[in-house]
Amino acid sequence: MSKLVMTKARFFKSDLMFVLLFAVFAAFYYDTVLDKGPLNVHLWRQTDCLSMTENYANGAAFGTPEMHIQLGDDNQSGYSAGEFPVLYYSIGNLWKWFGKSHFTYRLFYLIILFGGVFAFYKSLKIVLKDNFWATILALLLFTSPVYAYYGISFLTDGPAFSFILIALYFFVKYHHKQALRFFYLSMLFFALAGLIKVSSLIAFIFLGGILLLETFSVKTLGNKKIYHGLKFEWLGFALAIITIFSWYFYASKFNDAHGFKYTFNDIWPIWHMSWEDVIGLVEGMKKFTSHVFFSRPMLFLLLFTGIINLLLWKKIPLFVYLSNLGIIAGAFFYFILWAPLLGNHDYYYVALLILFVGIIVPFVWYMKTNYPSLLEGRIAKIMAVVFLGFNFLYCLQVMQLKTLVKDEHHLFLAVGDQDFVKHMAWANSYDCENNWYRFERMQPYMRKLGIQKEDRVVSLPDDSFNISLYLMGQKGWTNFNHYSTKEEIQYLIDRGAKYLFISQPEILEQDFLQPFLTQKIGEFEGIAIYKL
Predict the structure, then answer these.
(1) In this structure, is residue 431 part of a structural domain?
(2) Would you say residue 422 lies in a domain?
(3) For residues 48 and 260, what is the distance between their CA atoms, to the nearest angstrom?
């Protein structure tokens, strides 16, 4: 009995140590971020999520998601559906009860992020039976800048991946405990991940493929199988797929009914690209998205480890071998199906973090099983700690670049790409602080002019859905439809537009706008305001 108590105490101590280390990492990453609104690049997508959340806070029903931009129902509503809005709805209700706060939003996501990383750590403890390597690998995953950054952003990519990690933990528990309840918890979190980001389901598809193999009596784990049955397991996969399909079917019908779709919910394959697009994709990956995915040493480690794993045919169980091969294949098809977006949309890389799980974990398991003395030696552990420390510093520097740095000449030794530094500094300084944040700072001035929160406005030349509208807190229209005639502006007036905001002075010379520039009522930091 005393030995069992000592074992439990040791496991509890290791869990506590992991939580403390995670808290240290998070404290450095997020010390100046948690209370901030949309940051850096992709404000378009961030404000879409924030707009949906604020409309839930203002009383929108769960099944009728709504945005600030009024492009639905013949330009009379903002009804539009994309991913399953459970996160937007939950945070919207928190805003309703405690007041609107970006801190609440990011903290809510941080809790989910911790749940995902901690679940991965617990999975590794079961698989590797080693507290040290479970801690190192889980924290190493947390040094991915794209995960650290978007894990607490307003987009659903980070939470979706965290739910995948939680689903995998319950799947590991199912296999080791032979308890069906853990399998259905796994399917629940896979379904939740797919509902909010269907492209996150690479691991789900892989495990479905393993179930198919075992249905034909293939033993994928040596002389035994991963699954302990077939009937209830197939039912679980079917329920998850039906649940995900049902929501997107509903969203499609909802958007058709209201005539507005803010996200395409579809593939964008590589064969739609021209040769110039391919060159742009490669350049974008080289100078931007690859820096945000992982450090260069970590990328090389993934590459070489993946190749080594492929050479271990017949030396490791089929499931372990296929987890490397299948996840790599899944990532390849993911790339093919969404290639045009992967040059500059770094948040699309969150789903590809499953490569870390599918490549690194099988290799460490193989080494732990066949060469335990190497991994248990002091040299290997020191090297692992040093490598983790370097990647932590790298991630910290990228986090600073994406949130704080406004000087393009700032020196970042771990990043080493001045073009990347300049791009991040430009996004923070010019694009956000000097351009878009003017709309947020303008809110008190608007109230002094008599503009009420319920008044509809037109914001030009903003060509996004919601950036300027969300930041100024008004419903209305942006220049997403690229208005070019006075009849189009009059049409918006007929739909309730009361004020016109012009944020770039050069478009004041446009002929079609002249009839609407006769009643200027104010100007704020270069944004001219006209009454319609």
Answers:
(1) no
(2) no
(3) 13
Inter-helix orientation angle 378-403/2-30, to 10°? 30
Cis peptide before 505 (omega within 30 of 0): no
Average pLDDT over residues 420-443: 93
How far apart are alpha carbons 239 and 102 in whole angstroms?
Answer: 35
Is residue 94, in this structure, part of any structural domain at all?
A: yes
List for the chain the helix, strand, coil content (%; round to 5): 65, 5, 25
Number of domains in the chain: 2
Token representation of residue 112: 């989910």
Same domain as 513, residue 375: no
The CA distance from 292 to 288, in Å, is 7
| pLDDT value of residue 395 | 96
Q: Is residue 412 part of a domain?
A: no
- Asked which of 341, 373, 403 is the last residue of a domain, the reply is 403
Same-domain pairing of 397 and 450: no
Do 316 and 362 form a contact (C-beta atoms < 8 A)? Answer: yes
In which order are the strands placed within the sheet that holds 497-502?
476-477, 456-460, 497-502, 527-531, 520-524
Q: Residue 479 in 3-state DSSP? A: coil
Count how many Cα atoms sit within 13 Å of the Cα of residue 229 in the half-sphere of its side chain: 14
Give the largest Cα separation in the chain, rounded: 87
Output the pLDDT for position 406. 87
CA distances from 501 to 339, 445, 461, 525 (A): 36, 13, 9, 12
pTM comes to 0.95
C-alpha to C-alpha distance for 196 and 155, rounded to whole angstroms: 10
